[in-house]
């Protein structure tokens, strides 16, 4: 916590970008339901190398490849619970070895493990108690593995925010909570209320949004008054065309909005889907000018 506090006091912190995007650009097929978890198991050196590319570009935080690692998802692929624990622990070790000053253990939403698009709606058909139970073991294993903080990210609904904030109490690890501003599970009022609620949870050191269009960041945060920093790491600006299973449009929109976000109180800034090491290098250069 001291290291994170010192870095925040020195100025905005640069996050990494789209780990899956980079792994795909390195020639890996991530189309299976295991996504990057398959590479954690089969080609860990590639995961480490991808983290290192972002660190070399100026990322001060390596966000682990644990986003989609779950006991039920990997259980269906033949892993027992101990094997899943080992992959979660490996994700932190690989990120640490890549050289960024901080490691954030990624904790994706329930829908990410389903790989059915429900991570963008929060329409799971399960309640808060079930979500708490589902997240519990993974949160504890990641926290015990020694990250600098947990990245609870792409949360798509008020119910899952409530569940995850309840489960992080007592973990003893700083947490940022980032909501999906593109999720249909929120409207403007419920998104703002969820951010305020998360900001008051024990251990939470930043709240914000990710995995959304860059232009939606400011509107998501504009009406939210909290006493902790904001985190923002949207997508590149390209749009996912689900019917064609492809991205379309122009990327590179993140760096042009960094100053606006910093003026609004963002202190942890980077990119999500389709953002590359080159994008993060541009973000890092812009942040350096602001320090």
TrEMBL record:
* Gene3D superfamilies to which the protein is assigned, alphabetical: Homocysteine-binding-like domain (3.20.20.330)
- Give binding positions for Zn(2+): 211, 272-273
Q: List residues of the Hcy-binding domain.
A: 1-287
Q: Which GO terms describe its biological process?
A: methylation
Organism of origin is: Microbacterium fluvii
Q: What class of enzyme is it?
A: transferase
Stated name of the protein: Homocysteine S-methyltransferase
Keyword list (alphabetical) reads: Metal-binding, Methyltransferase, Transferase, Zinc
The beginning of the lineage is: Bacteria, Bacillati, Actinomycetota, Actinomycetes, Micrococcales
Q: Which Pfam families match?
A: S-methyl_trans (PF02574)
EC id: 2.1.1.10
Transmembrane segment boundaries: none
């Amino acid at each position: 916590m001291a290291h994170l506090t010192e870095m925040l006091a020195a100025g905005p912190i640069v996050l990494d970008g789209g780990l899956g995007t980079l792994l795909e650009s390195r020639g890996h097929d991530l189309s299976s339901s295991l996504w990057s978890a398959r590479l954690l198991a089969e080609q860990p050196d590639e995961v480490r190398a991808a983290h290192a590319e972002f660190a070399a570009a100026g990322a001060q935080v390596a966000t682990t490849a644990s986003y989609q690692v779950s006991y039920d998802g990997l259980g269906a692929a033949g892993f027992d619970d101990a094997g899943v624990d080992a992959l979660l622990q490996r994700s932190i070790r690989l990120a640490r070895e890549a050289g960024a000053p901080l490691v954030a253990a990624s904790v994706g939403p329930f829908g990410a493990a389903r790989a059915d698009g429900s991570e963008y709606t929060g329409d799971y058909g399960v309640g808060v108690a079930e979500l708490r139970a589902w997240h519990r073991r993974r949160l504890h294993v990641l926290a015990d593995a020694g990250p600098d903080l947990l990245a609870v990210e792409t949360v798509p609904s008020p119910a899952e925010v409530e569940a995850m904030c309840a489960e992080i109490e007592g973990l003893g690890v700083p947490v940022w909570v980032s909501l999906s501003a593109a999720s249909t599970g929120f409207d403007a009022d419920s998104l703002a209320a969820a951010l305020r609620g998360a900001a008051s949870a024990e251990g939470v050191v930043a709240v914000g949004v990710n995995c959304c269009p860059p232009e939606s960041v400011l509107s998501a945060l504009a009406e939210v008054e909290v006493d902790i920093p904001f985190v923002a790491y949207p997508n590149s600006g390209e749009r996912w065309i689900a019917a064609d299973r492809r991205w379309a449009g122009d990327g590179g929109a993140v760096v042009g909005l960094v100053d606006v976000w910093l003026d609004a109180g963002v202190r942890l800034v980077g990119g999500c889907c389709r953002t590359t090491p080159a994008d993060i290098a541009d973000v890092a250069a812009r942040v350096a000018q602001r320090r």
